[in-house]
Amino acid sequence: MTSLGGAFFAVIQRDLSIAMRHRGDLLNPLFFFLIVVTLVPLGISPEPTRLAAMAPGMIWISALLATLLALDNLFQADFADGSLVQLMLSPEPLWLLVLAKIIAHWLVTGLPVVLFSPLLGMILSLPGAGFLPLLLGLALGTAVFSLLGAVGAALTVALHKGSVLLSLLVMPLYVPVLIFGTSAVQRAVDGMNYGGVMAILAAVAAFSLLLAPFAAAGALKVGING
Amino acid sequence: MSSQPLLEFRALTFERDDWPLFSDLCGALKAGEILQITGANGCGKTTLLHILATIQAPTAGSLHWQGRDISRCRQEYLTAMAFVGHQSGLKLSLTPRENLHWLSQLQPLSRVSSGAALARIGLAGFEDVPCYTLSAGQLRRAALAILCMSEAKLWLLDEPLTALDVEGIADLEALLLGHVAEGGGVVLSSHQPLAIPALRTLALDAMTEVAY
Prior knowledge:
The structure holds two protein chains of two kinds. Chain A has helices spanning 4-21, 23-43, 48-71, 73-81, 83-88, 94-123, 131-155, 163-189, 195-225. By secondary structure, chain A is mainly alpha-helical. In chain A, helix 2 runs parallel beside helix 6 (94-123), helix 3 packs antiparallel against helix 6 and helix 7 (131-155) packs antiparallel against helix 8. Chain A is elongated. By secondary structure, chain B is α/β, with parallel strands linked by helices. In chain B, helix 6 (166-181) links the parallel strand 7 and strand 8 (185-189). Classes of the chains: A mainly alpha, B alpha/beta.
């Protein structure tokens, strides 16, 4: 009998090494994120005051879309080659293995977006006070995107061309995160206290971390059966 | 002990879109037995194996593991069962060794090392090449290498002979016979006849013909 942690870390390690061997898939969301934001000054206006006004929303929206782009692949590839079935037939608790997959997914899609966001803040002339709440907010927000997105990805796993449905399913759940995330940055830029808004984001992240792995595990069972 | 079947299924019915695929299917597998499920394409062999592996739920009927309802002892059942599906469960970008390592962390597989398992199934020298460079038959062998490592009592194999060459089929037959000699049980689906004495068969299309 293998240890509980063994399976958990084996899933993370496997998903990370698969991601490293498909670098194109790995870089796709990040490139999307970078390209959208760098096109804004070219397409709208290079004027710093106008860019600064748009910066929080623009960065958050492209971060949201970038993670949505990669969400489809969370369970789909494993379902197609039969390894998802092996995952579900493991005697280990399924929610733990699902959580491992979500963490690996966040490490390859969410984390690069967070790390590159200061650079994009500079491109969009974001005032200095906005950088810390942008980083913090995106770290929490992308984690929520991966966690809640996993529930949608699990529900639509057995559907062919389920990605449209997936976007429709998870978008309403993403909207509150987007609103609180942008408002935290905006408040910091306006010189106001953003602690309350960040606390709400943290609460949403904690709530998602607590419930999403169970919901996604349940959704996988339903998704496979249907 | 010997009279108690390993796996028993009672009155299994499965309906897809209100159309019965099979109904009132009963059967039992004792330790040391190999049960081959035969039947035409689309008659429900894979579905039956998925139901036996608890991947899908039957519309009606029940499964019993060593006399107990599986819904009561699913955890124990999963540790005692190995399933190799029609899809290999292997990641093409990983090597056979990496794939087996991952699977061995999920399942209680530890009897032999992944290298020894791959050598036994005829993949020596291919342990560390990416799976996408392997042929269909070699991939099938890599998927079946899990069985060499498995400590599971019950093997559920969906079309294990697909793409295997004559030698591969002989290797698999030897593997199956070794497993049942140690008191294990095997349920497999296949169209091809197997050179295994005392093989029991369950013809699925005959069952449906009887039903209508």
